[in-house]
């Protein structure tokens, strides 16, 4: 058929040479009416008005976006400033309540107290303040001064050096012992500078003649922490300044040390632009008249408009892009046969990426119809082969799981026996029985669990036995807490799914020199995705480096056997095989210190367990 068709073409070409010449001459004369010219004219008719409209719309969009950005930042700044004022008001109320009603504070003014009575009165007040400080996280330091004993008591400030603490102690002592210095500190929050940092200070006592007073210091730089995660453009920053425009916090490196906001605009409570060292800045500011500070968001104007400038550039080149697309369309219109080949290549690419449901459609061309059919048959054969390989991997995983279940950590076993021996030696027989009961329940679970899936309640109860034994080992240096939503206690999960993370926390996180090691395990419903539960294992231990976190969160995580994270690797592999991408693991730092593991699993129930 192909030979006859080519032969017919050659026959027509030889039989009518003069007709071809006529056609060529006709085309030359009517070139202005050709399809190519018409397409160019149509493109020009579309692109020129489009260019004008988009060009004008781009500048209009700049104004609208700037206005919306300004309003958004203004609302955010006003909201956070109100939160600051409310928090400081709560702190003031707490201080006043201590001065007026706290029995311990009233005792500080009474002479003749014994050393123990004075000590317990002072500690009672500071414990109340430390509990308040731990709950609200807004006060950096509480201080208590007793004129009767001439003693000053300070709460600790995280991250503060001994030299800074000495400077803070000297500043407080000078001011509370001098009535002229103390008087202005008692009526409002005051900006003070200590050891190179700016603080807000509030001191409270019954009257100026009172020999005891209590106060609070808040580092101004820490007051912007609610806005610390604000996604600003490069070079932007959240600043706290005084009414004269002086910066009370540490600005970003791009602003320089001499950066200052215009003081005459600090009372506008709105957005404005100004120029500093040749650079234009966009500022959204709000003033607190009660505190004498301004909360300001400062962004380089060039960075703020960078996206809009890019948008304007795209609008300018859009007609040329449209013209290019038309030319490409004409080119591929003449090569319709390429489309089936592109479909075939696309299908191969999707198969390579794992989309095994890919099927190529039937073609009108016999050659491509046969090729597409062969491709579809190949996909079916690959699917059958993958199923066989998948079943083999499942069997191998089951064998590995059985090995892990039967594996007994000798260090844990020997440590537990040592604990039992020491308790028996001390004749703590109730604790001996408790430890043995937990140990028996722990190993009974490890040796008898035969199902690949158990309930979440069983898994956490098994971990409770493990942690109770660790509690007996570390005594007061270790605490743990396990919480689970009631509706999840019978939810089905793969066995020994949480234990590797708990063991990892005990192995790598605990440090007896760093205070009490706290481990928390929680299981609850996800607020973001229906039908999903969140299991978190968090500790306040030594944490992990950023490089190690990136390695753990990598999809290609594959540790060496001597790194101690084979259990984590095993869990990730099992989740990938069991849930097929529906489960997630994320490793992160725990605030303020420590390590956190977040498991996101579909909620499933075995038959009869719901």
Describe this structure in words.
This protein has 610 residues and is α+β, with helices and mostly antiparallel strands. It is built from 17 helices and 16 strands. Strands 2-1-5-4-3 form a 5-stranded antiparallel β-sheet, sandwiched between helices. Strands 11-13-14-16-15 form a 5-stranded mixed β-sheet. It has a 4-stranded antiparallel β-sheet with strand order 6-9-8-7. Strand 3 and strand 4 (197-204) form a beta hairpin. The longest helix is centred in the N-terminal third of the chain and has 67 residues, at 35-101. The relative contact order is 0.05.
Largest sheet features: 5 strands, antiparallel
Q: Helix tally?
A: 17
Low-confidence stretches: 1-24
Which percent bin holds the helix content? Answer: 40-55%
Number of strands: 16
Q: Quote the average pLDDT.
A: 76
Beta-strand content bin: 15-25%
> What structural category do the secondary elements indicate?
alpha+beta
Q: In which order are the strands of the major sheet placed?
A: 2-1-5-4-3
What's the gyration radius in Å? 37 Å
Oligomer: single chain
> Distance between termini?
69 Å
Shape: flat
